[in-house]
Request: fold
Amino acid sequence: MNSLTLPVAIFLPSNDPSPNFRTTRNLNSQQKIAFTRAKWRCSATDQPQQKPSQQQQQQRQRQPKKKKTQTEVEKGIDPVGFLTKLDISHKPFAQFLRERYKSLKDLKDEIFKRYMNLRDIASGFELLGMHRHVQHRVDFMEWAPGARYCSVVGEINGWSPTENSAREGHFGHDDYGYWFIILEDKLRDGEEPDELFFQQYNYVDDYDKGDSGVTAEELFQKANDDYWEPGEDRYVKSRFEIAAKLYEQIFGPNGPQTEEELEEIPDAETRYKAWKEQHKDDPPSNLPRYDVIDDGKEYDIYKIVNDPVSRAKFRAKKPPLPYWLETRKGRKAWLKKYMPAIPHGSKYRVYFNTSDGPLERVPAWAPYVVPDADGNQAFAVHWEPPPEYTYKWKHKHPEVPKSLRIYECHVGISGLEPKIASFNDFTEKVLPHVKEAGYNVIQLIGLVEHKDYFTVGYRVTNLYAVSSRYGTPDDFKRLVDEAHGLGLLVFLDIVHSYSAADEMVGLSLFDGSNDCFFHTGKRGHHKFWGTRMFKYGDVDVLHFLLSNLNWWVVEYHIDGFQFHSLASMIYTHNGFASFSGDMEEYCNQYVDKDALMYLILANEILHALHPKIITIAEDATLYPGLCEPTSQGGLGFDYFVNLSASEMWSSLLGNVPDRDWNMSKIVSTLIGNRHSADKMLLYAENHNQSISGGCSFGEILLGEPREHASDRKASILRGCSLHKMIRLISFTIGGHAYLNFMGNEFGHPKRVEFPMPSNNFSFSLANRHWDLLEAQVHKELFSFDKDMMNIDEKERILSRGLPNIHHVNDTTMVISYLRGPLLFIFNFHPTTSYERYSVGVEEAGEYQVILNSDEKRYGGQALIEQDQYIRRTVSKRMDGLRNCLEVPLPNRSAQVYKLTRILRI
Reply:
């Protein structure tokens, strides 16, 4: 039989791979996607054209219009458009982009053979997994093309592999490897089965319309009486009457027996006129009249006109749906009559019989999975709470801000106590702190279910399940809802670049075969991390991954995704290769074209279904076109992460003396790729510095005194000064997004270490010391970070254009740049202060300090007096700008000046 992934009724799209979506809605208000044909052109072939002469124009007017070419039809799509935009001339890469575009068109054509549009391929969660059906049953669906037999085992049947299986008469197994199992609700003692085999129940509401005492036959008779006028339902009730009479007339015993007796059948016009003559004396009828007219024109022979009164009545009619709904019963009636086939909270797995023997697996689409702490196999938990206990959303998505101030979090280590914190703990204690700190986004890592806690959540086992360590799915919904109520967006760090290799709980060898979700051989295994690599070219794997992205948005109202470690999926060497920056490295034999096409589809579908969604690319290789539109050859991300900035800061703090820091290198690393600098997400340190075997900057800077420090006080002063300066320049010199890991805003002095055998499974370092906010040093650092966020809220620093970096001096170790009306000055020199340091500004006027890292309340020395906070420009060209500003610059300090009054010369 055909695939069970049947699409619902929608407007038919054309099989066009253009990313231009046209959205419509069906009766159930589910958003559907269709594609309109767009045009594309190769801008690399554009040539300047001369205006045609008058004679040429006349010749063109006389020529017949030609049919539009395919290139003209697809105008607006240019597979190499961003190369032309960025003035990049590299023929092999341009050819690679064109071939990738053609492959993407072929892939979409293949998708459209099975799905009506791209919305359907991203909505698999509506069918797969465990779902309540309105006809007193539960439907289970799973994809396992390598299995020979499938059943559901669990507490509902004593873990029997034969009681609830896919069998004949219940669809069973389709051609694409999808198994379908029906779990019938059980009748309570003394109850009789429903009279109607299609009896439906409303499981959400308690009202029982079907318990009014009116039988189904009475309802249907009432529907017929109210819907049809006398005589109108004649051919509905006996719809074979005309066909039977015609058959009897032609092929009956009194009809012609040979072709000669049959004679030639007259044409429609002749038969119509004969029928009119035969029925000219018939009495008037109340049935609507539909007649054929002929005004003497050839094309009028089949022109049909109808009675205006009958037409108005027909258009005014509505289907008798209210009568049908009268047969639907409420939840109370169902509870009285049936017991659930699989109760809420029941444990279950899916059982397969394969060529290698029987297997039990955790369903791939299960939304709630509990790993067994004793090393036994995990199991899924059926999550279907009663309506009165189901979480009800209270808040809408906040508006997407123009600048993102992201607070990266891990729920498990977010508590003060040395234990795994819960969703509820995070909601009550951490969310208010994030709001107070001035951030507008939280980004959650390690949230998706994973077996081993010490892997931080990057070896995902169940992509559709929130980790049960932190709480239930409804607990997570409450967290997201409360964050939205505080005006915070919620991003998810999604791991689609690889998956856990654990066969007891993950997807590896899911159906007994080695090529179900992943590649076979070496390509199916990460070279260094021991994880499995997805087979992105398979339509069913795309169905699984794309649906997973849509699931988190639909089910949990997620506002955005950071795609983790794209280099692992883009390259067959998993990104572990030396990159010289040559464009050849982005289009050679080590590039996985299927993975790139998956990322394009993911961005196209997410942004079409959810226009306000934010996608962030984490790619150490900075693949060209990460944030360029997919219609112009890009991958379609909204932001990309500059990973080299944090690595630079870690290297400088750990290996290079302060006096040897190179200002030019710092600036060039921070600004990154200037082509897409406005799309850059920058951070001084994220979870890598705290979790991935390293030390947080707070631990490095505020730990034991270094050898060159004379005493503890000097060491603390140095550490606090650099901590503030590093954050301020990383915050203000980049694009429209900034990120900070939980606790580092106040200089958390210890790294994170998850419980593992090497530390005897200790939780002593798997938490956050929020009590340090009351300590002087950490309180001062938090105060500075909070004021830094508030300045962006008031002055819109990140949302402005890119900074004008006009002063970088490696000798004085001073960096200065302008961003809008704000002037940023940094003196990284460890010992030298400047009383009147000259930097250039464009506008003449008065500039006032609005943020000074050296103030006492921030743990500084307050070497700048309050009367020095307002400085007036000097009419002198400096740094290529028209005016000069002379400012005091204490060592290891930074100031932010704002133009408060413009002087006209």
Remarks:
- Residues 1-51, 64-73 have pLDDT under 50 and may be disordered.
- The two ends are 84 Å apart (CA to CA).
- The chain has 24 helices and 37 strands.
